[in-house]
Amino acid sequence: TTSEARYRIGEPVAITVKNIGDETLTFPDSAGDLKIQNMNTGQMYNVVAAQVTTELEPGASRTITWNQEDGNGNNVPAGDYAATVQGIFSSSAQSVSAQVNFEITE
User: Fold this and answer.
1) Exposed, middle or buried: residue 47 (CB in 10 Å: 0-12, 13-18, 19+)?
2) What angle do CA 14, 32, 93 make, to 5 degrees?
3) Is the separation of the CB atoms in 1 and 99 below 8 Å?
4) What angle do CA 19, 104, 45 make, to 5 degrees?
5) Mean pLDDT, to the nearest integer, of 12-25?
């Protein structure tokens, strides 16, 4: 989930990932392998994160903040965005993902 459905350009986007399952989730980095996509242009943005395996126990959550910057440190344009996390259930190695949509306005 996000803390808001609409953000102003440059306003930090808080994305909360919660494990609602009954198995531990494993992510390849500290940002839950978070990917942000501009739904208007298709442009993808990565969230800078420590490259360490991270686990999320059942019922636990973590908040990841995106500064709305592209890989060059520039603010991304206004538009409709989707944030997607992808993890793996630790016991079965089954992949799982979740997505939330939000808008960035001028």
Assistant:
1) buried
2) 150
3) no
4) 65
5) 93
